[in-house]
Amino acid sequence: MRRLAPMLLAALAVLAAACEKKTQPTGEAGGAPAAQAPATAQGGGAPPAGDDVIVLGEVGALTGGQATFGISTRNGIALAVKEANAAGGVKGKKLVVRVYDDQSKPEEAAQAVTRLITQDKVVLILGEVASSSSLAMAEKAQAAGVPMITPSSTNPSVTEKGENIFRVCFIDPFQGFVMAKFARENLKLNKVAVLQDNKSAYSIGLTEVFRQKFAELGGKITATESYSQGDTDYRAQLTAIKKTQPEGIYVPGYYSEVGIIARQARELGLKVPLMGGDGWDSEKLFELGGSAIEGSYFSNHYSPDNPDERVKKFIADYKADNNGAVPDALAALGYDAARVAIEALKNAPDTSGPAVRAAIAKTKDFPGVAGNITLDAKRNAVKSAVVLKVQDGKSTYVTTISP
Amino acid sequence: MSQLIQHLINGLAAGTIYALVALGYTMVYGVLKLINFAHGDVMMVGVYMGYATAFALGRQAQRSMWGVVLIFAVAMVGCALLGFLIERFAYRPLREKPRLTALITAIGISFALSYGFQLDIGFLPGASPRAFPEVIVPSEWFIIGDRDVVVWNWQVISFLIAVALMAALQFLVYRTRFGKAMRAVSFDHRTAALMGIPTDRIIALTFMLSSALAAGAGLLYAIKDTSVSPLMGLYVGLKAFVAAVIGGIGNVPGAVVGALLLGLVEEFVVGYAASTWRDAVAFGFLILVLLVKPGGLFGRVAAEKV
User: Fold this and answer.
1) Do A33 and B271 touch (CB under 8 A)?
2) Is the dihedral of CA B142, B148, B149, B151 positive or negative?
3) Residue B288, in any domain of the structure
4) Complex confidence, ipTM
5) Does B235 contact A at CB distance below 8 Å?
6) Which domains can be identified in chain A, with CATH numbers?
7) Nearest CA-CA distance, residue B103 and chain A, Å
8) pLDDT (tens digit per residue) in A83-126
9) Which of A86, A205, A367, B214 could form a disulfide with B43 if both were Cys (CB 3.0 to 4.6 A apart)?
10) According to the UniProt record, where is the region Disordered (chain A) (predicted)?
11) pLDDT for A17-58, tens place per residue?
């Protein structure tokens, strides 16, 4: 038994070390996880970062808990880059995206960014989906003076890291606001409980605004419980919530947890609707949640039901490249972010950090597939949100809520 | 009151799974003084084997009694084989090396399995969580009030299986020749070898047994929480390891009691105090036990042999 303590310590040390150094390059876009990789790879082997190409960097969760987000985003970016190259590239040069997998971990994301900047000398960085990872990245990108556009990180503090950081999606307070308004005015709920993911800046951000806004509109928050990403047993929290008899539960987490939460809530006899944000947006939600998630609502950036021509064309092109998969909001935002970046590279006099930064900042009424994008003085996109309802194993459009 | 009972049931259900996983840690530690950190990941592999079998059987067959038996059998036999391979090729060559070497190898295997299973090539499952099919059709066995307290059939089944396995294991270790050999190897494997005990075979069998147990536990876990992901082994494995240490690692009933206690402590912390404190309290509980009884609740502190 006495040997146990040193062994434990050693084990922890090794674990820590193992967690440190594992940012694996997944190579050029479309490299490693070959199965789903779209064709952004520029003619096979590693292209030289020479004079004839412009290298963009991307950091995404290709493995780990938020993998479907990272993969969707990568597919969206790949499509935009493919189209730009087909149309002659930028300034006569082809675009290349260098993608690193951060395994859904902020510390890996930070390392990947450092690598993109120092070794790959990228002109611009795209990523991440999870706000926690984007926050870690933004610090490095800002310090190095490399512009960064996050497609879908909605935590406000991401762009507050500095003038080089942009986003093409709305921010968390807005999503919390949208759901509070929807719950109070459309669903007419009086008492709502909250179950947040206390390991995620995103979830905490949404919760804060939701609580405040819901109370402002005359509703009552009956309980606030939390869980940690990766948990699979939420029965204790749900049992505590059940006692307060809420009419709805706000769960602003990610799909991998929300599906299970829904099942366990129903199992414990909680029949009220669940509500959430864009972290729910994944086909996986319906598989994991099964019939338990039916009748729940979430706010999102975009709905594939949108009849707009632009959106239709995007969906068709995306399907063609990805074995018929319907693009989710993450794919749409990845696509939009890459297109904003490409547009800025075209408009900038050269590809230096300050020039590209200034060009991105001028983005106004840019026709994205997830809504028109105008960047405000704080480098955030101003746009409306949609509310979707889970019905018959898919999400259906309910309403649009404007700022 | 009904809330208290529901918490008790939830806590016991969680603790039961920890217990089955903890038994594997305890057995391997008992025989080899090795903390097999890959144990949780072997469990994960077992769950995926069960998942694949259920998938192959189809919706109807997987829900029949024989379907469930087949799913458990495939996963447990498959994992026994995996346990054998790991022991044969990763641990046996290091048997005479310092103990730390094997421990680091164990962590290596743990990572190889949990990250290897996130690849999306061929038969490998990819990184995203999957929903485990409802192989035991859930039904409520008894309900107090208007669904105030809910108990599910699989919760009761899991609990009974865990208790039965614990009893079987206790019998095996203390009442059979194999158990006697295990204990002899545990005491001093060189001397045991001199006495004619086939130590390699005993150790290999212990690994196979503990891995099969892990697969069974994993399936019960997947049935309980419905989600299957390549990283599930790390989390459950760590908790089960803590449970084994609380109970006194190397001690079979200790592992079970430690696990049930851990499950209940976690449940009550989340239910009545702050849900953010769950892991802090779990590890705090571990530290407390180690401070008061360094050998764990049921363990004995062995004098260091010099």
Assistant:
1) no
2) positive
3) yes
4) 0.82
5) yes
6) 4-170+311-372 (3.40.50.2300), 172-300+386-401 (3.40.50.2300)
7) 7
8) 999 999 999 999 999 999 999 899 999 999 999 999 999 999 99
9) B214
10) 24-47
11) 544 444 444 544 433 343 333 333 333 344 455 568 999 999
